Amino acid sequence: QYATTGCSLTLHHTEKPKHEAICEYRPYSCPCPGTSCDWEGSLEAVMSHLMHAHKSITTLQGEDIIFLATDINLPGAVDWVMMQSCFGHHFMLVLKKQEKCEGHQQFFATVLLIGTRKQAENFQYRLELHGSCHRLTWEASPCSIHDGVAVAIRSSNCLVFDTATAHLFADNGNLGINVTISTC
Questions:
Q1: Predicted local distance difference test score (pLDDT) of residue 164
Q2: Sequence-distant (≥ 6) Cβ neighbours of residue 132 within 8 angstroms
Q3: Cβ distance 132 to 110 under 8 Å?
Q4: What is the CATH number of the domain that holds 124?
Q5: In a domain, 39, yes or no
Q6: Number of domains in the chain
Q7: Can you give the residue range of the structural domain that contains 98?
Q8: Concatenated DSSP letters for 12-42?
Q9: Which of 47, 85, 137, 171 has a CA between 20 and 30 Å from the CA of residue 39?
């Protein structure tokens, strides 16, 4: 199905649906969480789409930045999104607050590469929360935007913390997360 966009595999019809679900050449969906954006397109068009359709997303340059999530006490499910550009690639930083069970809210922080799964294997990211006497750190390889935030959360490939922990590190309802991207 994706031969016109670069897939060169020829498979038996019984293997085709399984491959198409994970094929790197299938169209990319809009990776922006918390929106009902139906956009689909090539990997090369993702950043252009984000810059034009989701203008509220800030992009910072450099391997080491601070991702500031403001108003973390907002009720309900909330997503904070920022872009980080380094090593010739763009990374989507996501902090997601959602209810896990009966009033118990959790925060999920992760990094997605605007790129393929194979490209994502070349990078590591580190998320750090700093407090006066506390530090919380998570290190992992980013997921590709082909997988998305939901897959990162489902597979626990993210920093997970509860509301009490968020308040421990927050300053006036704002949470600063140090984000460092490195190559493997």
A1: 93
A2: none
A3: no
A4: 2.60.210.10
A5: no
A6: 1
A7: 54-183
A8: -TTTHHHHHHH-TTSPEEP--TTS----EE-
A9: 85
